[in-house]
Known about the structure:
The protein is an all-alpha fold.
Amino acid sequence: MSEIVDQAMRLFAERGYDGTTLQDVADAVGLSRPNLYNYVKSKEELLVAMVEATAQSAANSLRDVRQRTDLDSAEKLRMLVRTLVLRRAEQPEQFRTLDRSDQALPPEVAKKHLQVRRAVLREITAVLEEGVTAGLFRPVDVHITALSIIGMCNWVAWWFHPSPAHPAEPVAEQIADNAVAMVARDAGRTPDAPTPLGAVAMLQQDLDYLTRLLTLDNG
Length: 219
C-alpha cells in the first residue's frame, strides 16, 4: 500500500489528479488493475491516504510539540517550524500535489484536507498566543503571523531540492530562526513574570530610561 501511495503521489504531481487513472497507478507499481482493487477502490481513497500521510501526520506532530511542558514558547515555535520545513523538504511531491489539486479534490477529501490545514494553523497560533502572553513574543496579530510562518514553511516544497551537498536540516534551522526572530522581543525586553505586574515593570524601565535621557539633555 505504501508503494501504491508513493507512486500515486508521483503521478498526481506529474499529471495532475484528473490526468491520472487507476490504470496508470497499477502500471506504475506492476499490478493489474483487478489486483490494484485489492488495495484501493478509487482515486479518492488514494487522496485520503495522501492527506493522512502528509497533512494529518504533520498536524499530529505539531500538536505533540505544542503540548510539551519542558519547552518555552520560543523553543516550541522553533521546533514547530523545523518540523514543517523538514516534512515539506522530504515530501515535496505529496505537498505540491495536494496544494495544486485543492480545487479539484472530491468534497469529502477537500473537507478533510481543510480540517487538517486548520489544525496546523491552530497549533502554531496557540504557540504564538502562548508566547505573547508570556511576554516572550511581541504583541503581534497571531493569526496573520501564523499564516505568514506557514507560508514560509510550505514554499520549501517548491524551491528546495535536497542533495548530499545541500541537506534539509540547515535550511530548516535557518527558517526556524527566521520565524522566531519575526516575533521575539528584543533582548532585555521580556518581563520577569507573565503578569500585569511584569508588564508594569517593563513600562517602568522605559520610563526610567526616558527620565535619564531627559535629565542628560537638560544637563
